[in-house]
Amino acid sequence: MKKIIAILAAVATVAATLAFAGCTNNEVIDNNEVVEGEVKEGENAEGDAIEGETEKALTVAEGKLTMATNAYFRPYEFYEGDKIVGIDAEIAEAIAAKLGLELVIEDMEFNSIITAVQSGAVDMGVAGMTVTEERLKSVNFSSSYANGVQSIIVKEGSAIATVDDLCAEGASYKVGVQLATTGDTYSTEDFGEENVVRYSNGNEAVLGLAGGDVDCVIIDNEPAKALVAENEGLVILETAYADEDYAICVAKENTELLEKINAAIDELTQDGTIDAIIATYIK
Q: Which terminus in the chain has less CB density within 10 A, N or C?
């Protein structure tokens, strides 16, 4: 039977509440952790400095805000020609403008993003990423800027009709996931390591489903819709596997940059910019 459990962990200035629904205990985390760092001043779109800023934001490259992502997560990040676009790209661009910085996007494997942030190779990770206890060991997270749903893709006519079918007594389905995502984490907890097949991105997972290597794919709902639209014979189950919020990860020592990102997210939420960006991609 499907269960929903909420666990709250509070620290100091960041609030991201996640509600996960699965077959066993999935966690909810309220992250409020901030650590020390140094940041330079930025300005908002009208040229006004965000309150409390010094001269320039502390970033990897002066005058630039470098974002790591995995650009195979439509509509949050994907390629249009040689350019990476999408919800996350536009929100990051708006944040960079608030800080008076130029946005630079680096595409990499999803599993490498936290390492890149932690090591100082990039300033932040923006990739439809959720806060988890494991990730909090390595990085801090911003306030949530968008909501996500983990969905299940199956072939038309599949014996898997609901989330509960995956948990039924005696069930032993192979579940395809993107490596290091929350779908990977939850599926491993719920169905066991031996029943989870990991792929480098959602496209490869869906190809595995179409080829019969897995019985279903668990991935965020918006990318799931795009993948189903591009591949005949696949459907998304009506029941969600998990609900969660997306946030931006920042190195633990770069507290002031995190504070400025949170201030920008708050302004962009209050003035409707973030909602307008999301509405452009999600109807």
A: C
Given the DSSP bridges, would you call strands 64-69 and 124-125 parallel, antiparallel or unpaired? parallel
Higher pLDDT: 34 or 196? It is 196
283 confidence band (pLDDT: 50, 70, 90) = confident
DSSP string for 30-86: -------------B-TTSPBPTT--SS---SSTTEEEEEE-S-BTTTBEEETTEEES
**Which token pair is 82?**
């040689």
The b/e string for 245-264 (b: 16+ C-beta within 10 A; e otherwise) is bbbbbbbbbbbbbbbbbbbb
Tell me: pLDDT of 56 over 50. no
Secondary structure (DSSP) of 194-233: GGEEEESSHHHHHHHHHTTS-SEEEEEHHHHHHHHHHSTT
Q: What is the crossing angle of helices 273-281 and 255-270, to 10°? A: 80
How many whole angstroms separate alpha carbon 178 and alpha carbon 218? 8
pTM for the whole structure: 0.75
Token match 């990040």: residue?
Answer: 77
